[in-house]
Specification:
Blueprint (H helix, E strand, L loop, with lengths): L2 E3 L10 H5 L5 E3 L4 E3 L19 E3 L6 H11 L24 H5 L9
Antiparallel strand pairs: 1-4, 2-3
Length: 112
Amino acid sequence: MTYIVTELCIKCKYMDCVEVCPVDCFYEGQNMLVIHPDECIDCGVCEPECPVEAIKPDTEPGLEKWLEINREYSETWPNITAKKPAPADADNFRDEKGKFDKYFSSEPGEGD
């Protein structure tokens, strides 16, 4: 098992999860984070830290697409180990549905 970041992170990117990760397995995209599935130690400390509940165990049904997205982009996006401020408009996107099709960017973030 591993934890993965889902669509709910897109345009929110609160980063509370990054601060508690003991193995620094988060990677930063332009408008979301992902977890490297091979680096995650399945400790679960990140899951309750996410204010939008974007982090899920990969054992939940229907998350296969997100496991692959996390795997793919964690290989190319920069590592992030310190919390940064969330985007100024993050709260506007908290409850929005269909964010992947509307807003997902494959562009990398800044990382550390």
